[in-house]
Write a structure and sequence with these properties.
Dihydrodipicolinate Reductase, domain 2; six-stranded parallel β-sheet; about 35% helix
Length: about 325
């Protein structure tokens, strides 16, 4: 049996503490061994579920440890490229939170460094590892809803009260489009295998941060409309509407947190077939896929080239958007 991949985490972010570090700790083929933070007290919650965790007082110190093979990077958005490149230069495989870059062309440097090093570098775009999305892609490809005509979606939450949150600060790459727009855009690309031929948007700004964004696009075979917001009641949904049926996902992005993952297949005669996924953890599945790619050479389901395409659409929304 192959030795587990030894992981370190750069920074004691809340998301790492609540989701990704526990996923690494519990994933088959992975071992969480290190955390870098300059505030030792922030390491205590990690140590509570991972006794023996080594704490480093700087990111550089963790990267310098030859025992660490892979790093997870949950830093603020504007630091992702810098520390991903530093980790690759240090000989570490990299799983970096989304959005991995602020602009699509920044992926070119990351892809070149990945290819030069022979290491695995990926954005932590976890939803493609969830079986609800794999089923959705299969149903569309098999023609379960006939010819796809239109895709709609939404993702929202309200963080207006958290004024110091990095998602509310322009200087840290905040805003809803980069934070959650990646989901409504990337999921449609993943499920259909198509790329948009035209993109437009409309944005409501608040302190130079986008807090509501409409995204419209024309794909080769279907039209597309979604919105994201950081100033609305929590909601998420994706709907694929074809000539012969509808596929609806009720918790497409935060499965188990927002609600149970379900794929509804609406068919003629008002028949609805529902497939439920009550226990699947896409964070854990993501880590396991990452480790299999390292140890077994398995193809990673979400390469940088794919997420570059999502970032390119985000760039086009920003460039074309009118202000609301």
């Amino acid at each position: 049996m192959a030795q587990p991949v030894r992981w370190g985490v750069l920074g004691a972010a809340k998301f790492a503490r609540q989701h990704m570090a526990p996923a690494i700790h519990s994933a088959e083929g992975a071992q969480l061994v290190g955390l870098a933070t300059s505030a030792p007290a922030k390491a205590d919650p990690f140590i509570s579920f991972c006794p023996g965790l080594q704490v480093y007082d700087s990111y550089d110190a963790l990267l310098a440890d030859p025992e660490i093979e892979a790093v997870y990077i949950p830093l603020p958005n504007h630091l992702h490229v810098e520390w991903s490149l530093k980790a690759l230069d240090a000989g570490k495989h990299v799983l970096c939170e989304k959005p991995m870059t602020m602009r699509a062309d920044e992926f070119d440097t990351l892809i070149a460094k990945r290819d030069q090093s022979g290491l695995l570098a990926a954005e932590a775009y976890m939803i493609v590892h969830h079986p609800q999305w794999q089923l959705t892609r299969k149903l569309i490809a098999e023609g379960a809803i006939g010819k796809l005509i239109h895709v709609t979606g939404a993702f929202s939450y309200d963080n207006r009260a958290d004024t110091v949150n990095i998602r509310n600060r322009a200087e840290t790459g905040g805003g809803g489009l980069r934070d959650i727009g990646v989901y409504v855009i990337g999921s449609a690309r993943f499920a259909t295998g198509q790329e948009p031929v035209s993109v437009s948007g409309a944005i409501r700004w608040e302190n130079d941060v986008d807090v509501f964004t409409e995204i419209r696009a024309q794909f080769p075979d279907f039209t597309y409309y979604t919105y994201v917001s950081t100033r609305m009641h929590p909601h998420q949904e994706m709907v694929f509407h074809g000539e012969g049926g509808v596929i609806r996902l009720t918790a497409p992005f935060n499965a188990r947190v927002f609600g149970e993952a379900r794929v509804e297949l609406h068919r003629p005669g008002l028949e609805v077939l529902v497939t439920r996924f009550p226990g699947d953890d896409h964070y854990k599945l993501q880590v396991e896929a990452f480790c299999r790619s390292i140890r077994e050479g398995a193809e990673y389901p979400c390469p940088l080239e794919f997420v570059r395409g999502t970032q390119q659409v985000i760039d086009q929304v920003f460039e074309s958007a009118v202000s609301l």
